[in-house]
Give the backbone structure.
Amino acid sequence: MSTVTNTIFSPELAARFDHLVTIYPVKRSALVPMLLYAQDEIGYVSDAAVSEIAVRIGINDLEVRNVLSYYSMLRTKPAGKYNVQVCTNISCMLRGGYGILDHCKKTLGIGHKETTADGTFSLEEVECIGACCWAPAMQVNYDFHDGLTPEKVDVVLQQYRDGQGKDVK
Amino acid sequence: MADVTLIVDGKQITAPAGTLLIEACKSAGIEIPAFCYYPGLSLQAACRMCVVRIEKQPKLATACTTTIAEGMVVQTETPEIAQARKATLQLLLGNHPLDCPVCDAGGECELQDMTFKYGAAESFYAEPKNHREEQKWSPVVYFDRPRCILCYRCVRMCGEGMDVFALGIQNRGSSAVIAPNVPAQLSPDDLAHVDCEQCGMCIDACPVGALTSGTYRYKTRPWEMNHVATVCTHCGDGCKTTLGVRSTSDGSEIVRGDNRDKSGINNDFLCNKGRYAFDFANHEDRITQPLVRQANGELKPVSWEIALDHVGKKLRELRDTRGGKSIGVIGGNRLTNEEAYLLQKFARTVLHTNNIDHHRTADYVAFAQSLAGHGERTASLHDTLKAPAVLIVGGDPTVQSPATAWNLRTNVRLNRAKLYIANAAEIKLRRQAKAFLQLAPFGYNALAAYLAGDEAAALSATSDTAALSSFRDAVKAEENLLILIGSELRGAELKKLIDFGLTIPGAKFALLSDYVNSRGAADMGLLPDMLPGYTPVGATSPMATEYAGPNALGLDMLEMFDSADRGNLSALYVVGANPVARYSIDPATLKNTFVVVQEMFLTETAALADVVLPAANLYEKAGSVTNSYGDLQQVSKAGDRAGVRTDFEMIVRVADKIGANMQSLVPFGKGLRADMGQTRGVQSGEADRHAVWLTANNMEPRLSPFDSFAILDEIQRLVPGYNILRLQLLSGNDQHLSPAATPLVQISNRRDLVVPANDTLFTSGTLGRYSTMLCDLQQNEILRASNLTQIQTAAD
Amino acid sequence: MPTLVSHPDEVKIVSRRFGQGAADIEKYIELDGYKAVQLAISQGAEMSNWIINTMKASGLRGRGGAGFPTGMKWSFVPKVSEKPKYVLVNGDESEPGTCKDHVIFLHDPHSVIEGTMIAGLAIGSKLGFIYLRGEYRYLLKQVEKAVADAYAKGFLGKNIFGSGIDFDIITQTGAGAYEVGEESALMESLEGKRGVPRIKPPFPAVVGLYGGPTVINNAETIANAPHILLMGGEAYAKLGTERNGGTRLFGISGHVERPGVYELPMGYSLRKAIYEVAGGIKDGKKLKAVVPGGSSCPVLTADEIDVGLDFDQMGKAGTMLGSGGIVVLDETVSIVEFAMRVISFYQHESCGWCIPCREGTDWIKKTLTRVYNGGGSKKDVDNVQYLAENMMGRTFCPLGDAAAMPTLGFVKKFRKEFEDYIEGHKAGTPLITVEQLVGAGH
Ligand SMILES: Cc1cc2nc3c(=O)[nH]c(=O)nc-3n(C[C@H](O)[C@H](O)[C@H](O)COP(=O)(O)O)c2cc1C
Ligand code: SF4
Ligand code: SF4
Ligand code: SF4
Ligand code: SF4
Ligand code: FES
Ligand code: FES
């Protein structure tokens, strides 16, 4: 029983959200996943998304923003189609994580939290992504790429550029 | 609850089980420092200032989250604890501007106090401090981020306390920040704003100078002010507000309102109006000279002597020629009890008229009569904080009686009080209600009838009759129910509701009205048919024996204007009221009436007057007031304005000019006792009752006719129900009074005499129009609303 | 895709099915899957006690970091409760150096599901949650599919395995926050709030998720439950050392020849783990230091590694077993730089709730960054130590300790290196350039 008539989301996502708020003992439990899935679809959590999610959950916009701003994966500004997240935390750092980050900066021509002019890539330096034993590692959107070398990075980026990346959602 | 005994700093202390350690210590005189703890709000354990050592616990414990236990052994000040607190302060100061000399909270800052105590002032950080511009969130709320220590008091105050939830916490770690509910990107000026009730409670709770108020900011320093505790003029709750006063060239100016010691009837609460809307006193349009209308029709400033002479002469002449019955008197809702009492006494005994009324915002006459003989059934404002169950019929306390609403929310939150609400509108308090009954428009009469047992009334009360019936069952099952009644209920229906309530064991009642002394005005007999204490005109009573007033009932407010319209009202004497605007009187009505108005501003009524006498307001005088509930409190003089006089003084002076016997009007002076009964009372030979009473009560006679205590003495002596405890009053405490009315067979059906003020959070009758702050806030609301529509239309 | 590694010293219990396609439910069943839960149900009225006693006997201690005995934790949940009880699987895995749950979710998601059911049966809960960090989206899909398959088989839902008991599982994702791994913060997150921890007591076993009694366990802890029930508590216990039953997954990373996730018996030698299991220091370099259990554990120097990998021995050695993420540093590493990177992480991840952690991590980070950039003074080392010492034990949740402990370890054990660095004698090969620091997001 969706209360939202004029959804800003795709019919699929709207349907998913309609369902999501029903599965938990408390509606609000759907908040964090909804924000993430909304971002997956729109590219970021827009003000309109905040408002619609607030309505769906039955809380005010401010509460949504409070939560939204807490989580580092959630953003309120658009990113590139492929968000390249390079881990530079200890295990990766020891095995060249910063070199990988530098390489990405150079080849993409952008810095931390920046997006390429064509909107294809954005770059982010991130904390440990749970791939320490296969360091250095990065994620492109949700896909893991590990055991990286600059050459491997080039191959990976080219795959995405060519639209051949996995891009799990 | 059972008591628990523990040892704190070697001292044995006892407190009820379930008490928090920090509170138990406090009641034993041991202050534990705390930034994030705020009594009554949810616990945070965030600031770590309240750390103490509890025996057998591995780590320092936070006193604000520890519940006391039998045999607990606690240390609250050891070198280890001092070091922990010092380090916490050092950490805070690492990023906190150390500019106390220019900070608004300087002198009242908990961080400053603690830093001093724990010697953490010298900062050893080399890094530059974060700096950000101060933000204006609303006309009253300013935020200075670097000063914020993230104690979250404001967030909880706004959410839990106010049920507004306008403040949040955003980002995390060292980027965490308090954020208001209108983000910059959704604001037309690209600045963040707070869309809220503007109560200032967040500012009040802020332990540092991060949240400051628009009105007071940088005007002065706390130690440069005198602080005067008095009573807010704006609604019927009558909160204690402490006014910060600074001397100026023409008197003393009020620069701040707050609730410093939280000791009043309102505990820690004040709404926007009590906190900020004192500024009408400083408004540039204030009248500071008497004005007399000239032959050319213009009002011209004249000396007091000329003005008073003129008024005295005219009134005396009109009384003597056209009779007291041709004169009307209208009093105000913001006068003190003494003034209201004096005014009606002046009317009855000097002007010889019972044509007395005031702007009634609730039907206190019917209320008092319905509760005649049930004095113990009237509720105090304190009951809203303690009653286990509350029924609210009509009204909208959130807007009309914010302190009542605050208390109710607190009671629900902390004591799980059960709130039952029946209202034709979806009032905000329904969010705290156990049951909310949506009434049909004007369904109150039917509801009262239904509650009283008239099943047939159900359908006129509400469309949801099933809910209605379970609502009635639930309410009936309650004991010690507090019944709060809105001004919608009047006359017979009010009586019906009260009669129903009286069947519930322990139920208590209150009738909510609009201004600081609306209740007092009625209690003090500013009524055509009632002497003070709801003593019917013409009935035998001690008061009637002493008053030589007319025996016939007077004209009420509307009748007076009708009479004026017919050319029968020779004079109208208005004290602190604006009936012309309130009752939409056609100005032409008064063209043949001599009108005297005591006012602060040239209101619609004053503008029609022949004489305008510049009046002091409630913050500029002393006396007592009675709130909606019947709680009596003292008001004290805070501000002062050259050129104005209190209504009390003006009435006395006018009476004098008329040639009244001053000592019968105001029982003052030592000479009375000597000639027992010569000057007092009409029946000669009778003892001077007042003097006898004073002696019996160990009181001295007052020395001046301008001493309002003389009238208070008489009120206490003569007004049924006003058996005032002087010590309570003088020590600034409130006391609950119940009028001891005589039941009346016939309850008046003049519903139209009661005109609720319908004030919003940001209006306060005529007076409110002269508060720049309230005007700003109304403007702010309008802007907000129009922006919202713009944003919405843009999104569509 | 994580590569699987193997070493003869490994004792494969929880990793038994890795690499065998057990993410597929048929394969899982073939490899004794869903037998343990049926065995438990077959205990009838004694089921709950039987499970808890077996878990107690196994000596299994929580694999999330703190090492709390699992059987005991389960026994704390009140038998009767007005509010529903919940099982919560902590798959937030975010402690730097840790990636073991990653492998479990990838190779054996059903073991987590079955473990959750077992925990539910033990405490009388009807609903379990599996919470994965937001970055693990592909693993979430894997777990979601496994849950769906289990439902399809009728293993989950109404009347599981004819027991008359209903049990449901909901999968949940985070959205990037280390602190949400802390159990009460995780509950807040799962309730749709900011990941700020809760005041304790009350503890989750009494008042947890949605206010109901809740058992929260690390994914590896939970995944062990089915194996323990099948092999018997005592048998499992015997694999490890005293009070440290069984085996655990160790993720060995950093400067080793064969990094990877290995399952070793509790008490296994740290030296052997580095030099034998993980193939020794990479490129024949010398060992400088080891962070033995995720980034929050105080560092061990090269000559402190003759210690058994269990909670008690590591504690005696002045550090912790933590999450089992062993990070190895060779001689080229600058401790100043490493310490700076570690504190940067905690500064970034501090939830900001309490003053000592929020402000402490920020200032230590600022100070160490300045030191690293060459602007340090001797007093800075003292200040860092002072700050860390004053954070210890004073914060609202253990993240503050997690930041202070390694910092103290670095400045105490490598004080000389800090002082030399400040004086311009910089040891080690820099891994981070100043330029990189300026642009860094943390
Ligand atoms: C800051 C912080 C982060 C944590 N992160 C995790 C985590 O990612 N995964 C985890 O299982 N436990 C984590 N924990 C430990 C949990 O709070 C909790 O102790 C654990 O999930 C209990 O499970 P166990 O008994 O099976 O170890 C963390 C604790 C803290 C203080
Ligand atoms: S002024 Fe009152 S309503 Fe507004 S933010 Fe502050 S506490 Fe909330
Ligand atoms: S603004 Fe004041 S009350 Fe609010 S969190 Fe900051 S310091 Fe506390
Ligand atoms: S609640 Fe009423 S009395 Fe209290 S401050 Fe507000 S307006 Fe004044
Ligand atoms: S120690 Fe304090 S600031 Fe740090 S993560 Fe825990 S609660 Fe948050
Ligand atoms: S440190 Fe990079 S994935 Fe863990
Ligand atoms: S007052 Fe106890 S932690 Fe803040």
The longest strand of chain B covers residues 240-248. The radius of gyration of chain B is 28 Å. Residues B 141, 157-158, 162, 164, 166-167, 194, 196-202 surround iron/sulfur cluster (ligand 2) (CB under 6 Å).
